[in-house]
């Protein structure tokens, strides 16, 4: 249904005259007549009776009028829903217990007026494709390729470096250490069954292992976080890596230890990815809130992130 014709019908009904409706709509009276005639043909009924005093609604016109008004209100709501800043900013955070989710929560606390829609996609390729297609506004990812190699129109900026920590059970040889160096981890068994080959996090930990002679095991099925923590808690040999801001909860009797890694500190490089032509004002606010990571510390990150 032609909404311009519907709008013209409502205007004539309110004005009571085709001439007055034409002045209101800034079109010719002939254009008003053609639009109404086209709408009547589409509906198969007469909407007005032309009289010397003006245009009077027929019974069908009276019945159609409230529905026509609702159509125009629906059009206004539909247009308003996608105006920049009116809809929620849709952001991919990889996982709801990981650092990007913490960063978005911080943004929400600083800007509670901004609507947010938080989603979790699998890997960087899926995230870039979603940003490119416009199904999300932004994504937090570690980029294993330079930003200049991203698809046309896609931009990225490194926004957060997250220190990596060692997680052990109480019986592990390093459980009582206040800190460890990457070199000290050589010879210890680091178990990460969720290190899926081909993902950006697998690329990070593969490079970390190669740089410092660390053996990372991915043997066995990945049953999720809780079974991993159960195994680590009971093992004197196995440990795993977690991000400093990763929210990990475990039963009190597990007595797990989160041990900072320094000398240097491995940091996971989180970047924000977005479309350069995205007009959503909250996207600019999010980028300003995040800023840039502090690169003055004694840290290590893979060459592809530098």
Layout of strands and helices, then pairs:
Layout lengths: L2 H13 L2 H8 L3 H15 L4 E4 L2 E4 L1 H23 L7 E4 L6 H12 L5 E4 L4 H10 L4 E4 L12 E15 L20 E3 L8 H13 L2 E3 L7 H10 L3 E6 L13 E4 L4 E11 L5 H10 L8 E2 L6
Parallel strand pairs: 3-4, 3-5, 7-8, 7-9, 11-12
Antiparallel strand pairs: 1-2, 5-11, 6-9, 6-10, 6-11
Helix pairs in contact: 1-2, 1-3, 1-4, 2-3
Would you kindly provide a written description of the structure presented here, covering whatever features stand out?
- The structure is a single chain.
- The protein has 306 residues and is of the alpha/beta class.
- The protein has three domains: 3-81, Arc Repressor Mutant, subunit A; 89-160 and 268-297, Periplasmic binding protein-like II (D-Maltodextrin-Binding Protein, domain 2, 3-Layer(aba) Sandwich), CATH 3.40.190; 162-266, D-Maltodextrin-Binding Protein, domain 2 (3-Layer(aba) Sandwich), CATH 3.40.190.10.
- Helix content is 37%, strand content 21%.
- The chain has helices at residues 3-15, 18-25, 29-43, 59-81, 99-110, 124-133, 200-212, 225-234, 281-290; strands spanning 48-51, 54-57, 89-92, 116-119, 138-141, 154-168, 189-191, 215-217, 238-243, 257-260, 265-275, 299-300.
- Strands 3, 4, 5, 6, 7, 8, 9, 10, 11 and 12 form a ten-stranded mixed beta sheet that branches. It has a two-stranded antiparallel sheet with strand order 1-2.
- β3 (89-92), α5 and β4 (116-119) form a beta-alpha-beta unit.
- The model has no long low-confidence stretch (mean pLDDT 92).
- Residues 1-58 form the HTH lysR-type domain.
- This is LysR family transcriptional regulator.
- Belongs to the LysR transcriptional regulatory family.
